[in-house]
UniProtKB/TrEMBL annotation:
Its cofactor is Fe(2+); Zn(2+); Mn(2+). Its main location: nucleus. This is Lariat debranching enzyme C-terminal domain-containing protein. Residues 419-466 are annotated as: Disordered. It comes from [Myrmecia] bisecta.
C-alpha cells in the first residue's frame, strides 16, 4: 500500500560536512559510492552551511562575501524541479538564508524529503535518535533572545546564526540517550582527543587555539559531557578530523592513548564505513568533515547494524514535551528570560506535557490511518512548470499555506509568536475541512514548518519574554 515506509534492520548513514548548497554534487557522490562499494545508503546528514537558498531575495539574507553568493542547486529541490534521492537531514551553520530558516524555527520540511532540525531539535530515523544544534557560538549573543528579523542589518544578519543559551538549555533536559548529536562548530577541547599533529599539518593556524583550549564551542562541550551520544558530527573548519572522547575511563593517560589509537584507525579508513561505537562504552566517537569540493574528505559513511525501524522521519516524544514545557522561556527581544537552574536543572518535560504529547501523537496516528484507508494511493508530490534557474526568483515564499496545513497536529486556538495570525489561518483551514498529512510517508505539497504546528502543543497563555 502506498505510504507504508520500508522497514529494515541496520542503517547506513552518509555524513557530510559543509554543504554550501551543492546538493547535486553530494547526491552524485553518494550514488557513485553506492555503485563502487555495492551498498545502499539510507540517510544523508549535513552538518551545517546547508544554504537553503530559494531565490535571489534569500541571497540578500546570506551572511557571506558577495562574491560567494550563488543560488547553487537547492532551489531546484524547493520548486520540485528535482526530488532529493535520499532522505536528507541538516542543521544550520554560519552561512545560511536566515530569513527562510527563521520561518522554520522548530524545524520542518525545507523541500520534499529534506528536513531541517531547527535551531535545536531531536528527530528519529530508522531506529536511530538524532539531536542537533544549529549555528555557531559567540559569547556576545549567547545569553540574548532572538531579536533579529528581516530586513537584517550587517550585524543582525550574523548574530541570527549565533546559538542561544535557551537551545542548549532545552537539549540539556534530554534524559533518554542520543545515538547521534550534530553541531556545526566543534565542541571545545575535542581536538585534544585525536591526532593533533595531523590537524596542525593541515591547518597550522589552529595550533594556538588548540593549545590554549579556545578552539570550539563551550556549549557544545557542555552538551557532549552531559548527553554522551554515541557519535558527534561537526563541520565548520573545512578539515576531516576524528577523535574519541572518553567519559568514564580510569586515567587521563589511558584516555589519551585510547583516543589517539581510535582516531588513527578512523583517519586511515578514509571514506570507508566506520563501525558502531556505543555511548554505553564510555566514549563518544567524534568526526568533523570538510566542505564539498573535489579531492576533499567531505563525506563519510557510518553504519548502525543494530538499528531497527522504518526508514522515515519520526517526531521525538520527549523533545516535543521539552518544547512545550519551555515554551514560555522563548524571547523575541534582546533580553532572554531567566532559565531555571541553568547548568544544573535537568528535570525534563513535565508529566502533564509528556501525556499531552503522547495523546496528540496518538491522535495524529489515528488521522493518518483513516486517511490512508480513504485514499491509499494518493501521493502528494506537486508538479511545477518551467525549468530555468531564473524562475527560482518567482517562488512563492508565503508561509500561510505551510502553517495552515502543517502535518503535525490538529490546530488549537493559541497564540503563535513566531508567525502572528498563524493560528487563525490554521483554524480557518480546519473549518474548511482541509486534510492534514503525516510527516513521513506523504511529502507535503509545500515545505512545512513546525513553528505553527508546535503552537498546537504549547500552553495557551503566551508567556514570551518582552
Amino acid at each position: 500500500m502506498a505510504g507504508v515506509p520500508e522497514r529494515k534492520r541496520g542503517l547506513r548513514v552518509a555524513v557530510e560536512g559543509c554543504c554550501h548548497g551543492e546538493l547535486d554534487k553530494i547526491y552524485e557522490t553518494m550514488q557513485a559510492l553506492e555503485r563502487k562499494q555495492n551498498i545502499k545508503i539510507d540517510l544523508l546528514i549535513c552538518c551545517g552551511d546547508f544554504q537553503a537558498v530559494r531565490n535571489l531575495d534569500d541571497l540578500e539574507c546570506l551572511a557571506c562575501p558577495r562574491k560567494y553568493r550563488t543560488l547553487a542547486t537547492f532551489w531546484k529541490y524547493y520548486t520540485n524541479r528535482a526530488v532529493a534521492p535520499y532522505p536528507t537531514l541538516f542543521i544550520g551553520g554560519n552561512h545560511e538564508a536566515a530569513n527562510y530558516l527563521w520561518e522554520l524555527y522548530h524545524g520542518g520540511w525545507v523541500a520534499p524529503n529534506i528536513w531541517y532540525m531547527g535551531h535545536a531539535g531531536v528527530i528519529n530515523f530508522g531506529g536511530v535518535r538524532i539531536g542537533g544544534l544549529s549555528g555557531i557560538y559567540n559569547s556576545k549573543h549567547y545569553r540574548m533572545g532572538y531579536y533579529e528579523h528581516p530586513p537584517y542589518t550587517p550585524d543582525s544578519i550574523r548574530s541570527a546564526y549565533h546559538i542561544r543559551e535557551l537551545e542548549v538549555y532545552r537539549l540539556l533536559q534530554l534524559k533518554q540517550p542520543l545515538d547521534i548529536c550534530l553541531s556545526h562548530d566543534w565542541p571545545r577541547g575535542i581536538a585534544h582527543y585525536g591526532f593533533k599533529d595531523q590537524l596542525f599539518r593541515k591547518k597550522p593556524f589552529l595550533r594556538d587555539e588548540v593549545e590554549s583550549n579556545t578552539l570550539g564551542s563551550p556549549p557544545a562541550e557542555q552538551l557532549l559531557k552531559a548527553l554522551r551520544p554515541a557519535y558527534w558530527f561537526s563541520a565548520h573548519l573545512h578539515v576531516k578530523y576524528a577523535a574519541l572522547y572518553p567519559h568514564d575511563t580510569p586515567s587521563t593517560a589511558q584516555q589519551r592513548q585510547h583516543s589517539a589509537g581510535a582516531a588513527s584507525a578512523s583517519q586511515a579508513n578514509g571514506s570507508e564505513a566506520l563501525g558502531v561505537q556505543h555511548s554505553k562504552s564510555g566514549f563518544t566517537s567524534f568526526l568533523a568533515l570538510d566542505k564539498c569540493l573535489p579531492n576533499r574528505a567531505f563525506l563519510q559513511v557510518v553504519e548502525f547494524p543494530d538499528a531497527d525501524g522504518p526508514l522515515e522521519f519520526a517526531y521525538d516524544e520527549e523533545w516535543l514535551g521539552i518544547l512545550r514545557t519551555t515554551h514560555s522561556l522563548t524571547s523575541l527581544t534582546r533580553r532572554q528570560a531567566p532559565l531555571p537552574g541553568m547548568g544544573g536543572w535537568r528535570e525534563g518535560a513535565t508529566a502533564a506535557d509528556k501525556q499531552f504529547i503522547r495523546d496528540a501523537l496518538d491522535a495524529r496516528e489515528e488521522i493518518d490511518l483513516a486517511e490512508a484507508e480513504d485514499d491509499p494511493d494518493e501521493i502528494c508530490i506537486p508538479e511545477t512548470d518551467g525549468a530555468d534557474a531564473a524562475a527560482a526568483d518567482d517562488v512563492d515564499e508565503s508561509p500561510t499555506d505551510e502553517i495552515a496545513d502543517d502535518p503535525m497536529f490538529t490546530p488549537m486556538e493559541i497564540n503563535n509568536s513566531f508567525h502572528p495570525g498563524a493560528a487563525a489561518a490554521a483554524l480557518d483551514a480546519r473549518d474548511e475541512g482541509r486534510g492534514s498529512q503525516g510527516l513521513s510517508s506523504q511529502q507535503p505539497a509545500q515545505p512545512r514548518g513546525l513553528s505553527a504546528a508546535l503552537a498546537a502543543i504549547m500552553p495557551k497563555a503566551d508567556g514570551h519574554s518582552k
